[in-house]
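Its record is quoted verbatim for completeness.
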Amino acid sequence: MTQIKLSASRIISFSLLFFLVMFLLIASPASALLFDDDLPRETKVRNLNLLAAGATLGWGIINWDYFQKSPQANSEDWFGRETDDGGADKLGHLYTTYALSHLFASIYDSWDYPREEALRLGSFSALGTMTVMELGDSFSDYGFSYEDMIMNCVGAAAGYWLGSHPGWQRRLDLRFEYAPSLSNFESDVITDYEHHKYLLALKADGFEIIADSPLRYLELHIGYYSRGYGDYKSSQPYDDRERIVYVGVGLNVGKAIEGVWRTRIFDYLQLPYTYLPVEHDLN
């Protein structure tokens, strides 16, 4: 698997790591210097964004060979059969920016920003962080990708729009799923890209006419994933690459367990094997 082939799993690795690093930094005693309650909230916003940019560049220098090459840009195309990841990496960019926008917004919300302003700042912060990443890519083997940048913008806009429309946020989730193979389990869960999926979930509970019926625990899924791209070589005698679109009916896990645990984690992460899909291979 070449470095370029790792782009989609790389973006997921970065997003999960970023959430963890931000949490640890903000929760640490050192955060008192950057996010002290006595500081103006604008100063804390500036410090957080500088911290996010620095963490992104630092990680890129250590792991992705940032600043080892002259800046370059390229077109990776979108969801075509011959792309490096079947287009799943583009959804990875969209999802990561979307999730980061809500992470930033929740922090700004805790700093007493009005909800609308927190969402707007959160979207800009997420887009800024992903732009720093893309600019760093331009100084590496990856190169600046126009398609990645467009999907970053779409993810930031989706994060803002859904967050600022509570009615629709109750109905729609953008989620990421990881479902490992028991017969071919990879110890490195985060980079096991062959078992990643992206989906949009429409939740029955978000509609008042259904909210009090047994159907409130159901949801409709529209998803996409690719398989066989990571290890594909043009010289091999067979082509087992797949680009799968699917629709399905699933269980709204967050709703089903809200009596014992109220959490929004399942608004962003899809629990495997909780839905019945009908799939179509575009290849």
